[in-house]
Write a structure and sequence with these properties.
Layout: E1 28-33, H1 36-41, H2 43-60, H3 76-85, E2 90-96, E3 102-113, E4 117-120, H4 150-156, E5 161-163, E6 168-182, H5 186-200, E7 205-207, H6 215-220, E8 228-231
Parallel strand pairs: 6-7
Antiparallel strand pairs: 1-2, 2-3, 3-6, 4-8, 5-6
Length: about 240
Amino acid sequence: MSRRLKQHKQPPYNFRDVPDSKRDLEGSCVVQIQSRPQWFSCIGELVQICNEAVRRQRARNRSYMKNKDVGKPLSLFYIADRLDTDDPIRGYMVRSKQTGWLQGFVITTTFTTWQRWFKWDSLTPQAGIMDKNGGVRACCANRKVDADGALAKELNDQLYHGDVKAEGIIWPRVAEISLLGALGCGGWLVGLVLEEMQRNNEYDWVVLQALDNSIGFYEKMGFTRVGAIAKYFQEKEDED
């Protein structure tokens, strides 16, 4: 069986020519987007700005070039999958007032899992934070991590409901920043959605998946690394 994906349009401009936005967004405008078709109509721009953001980061810090896995941009298929499945889908775009070129975007949704078995767990070595001896791994020693498992415990206590074969397992009080791509305005966009969530009192927690090269950025925004493990099928306990 096969299905033809609607071909996305390439942006009519080169993202290498897009200037970084100013910190106060002078010369830029912010547009709120809540329509799924609107996001899909801009998917070419979303992909290109993520690629360009990584290229500029590598140019600023050549050490990233030593490891090809660090700073890898988001793929078209990952972005398309999030645009297709995130429900609700909310967010903002930042565009140049002069040219209309995209300078940044952020998308938020309600956290949803699609595995039959999912658990927040910062203490298990499989989560990548703690070692087998119960200590923080060397790679996390200077990072903000949930070393005592307290945050994971509070997240596990949140209510959730749903069906993995239908709408997924929905965590109604946990928000997720599902996509972010920006040239100079990433911190501003994250601050905007965090302030909005706090003001609306719709969520108690905000989670996200951070690439290695973005961990420091999110730590500055107040995030702490929490572990999680997931399985599509829960293993049966050994019988005596």
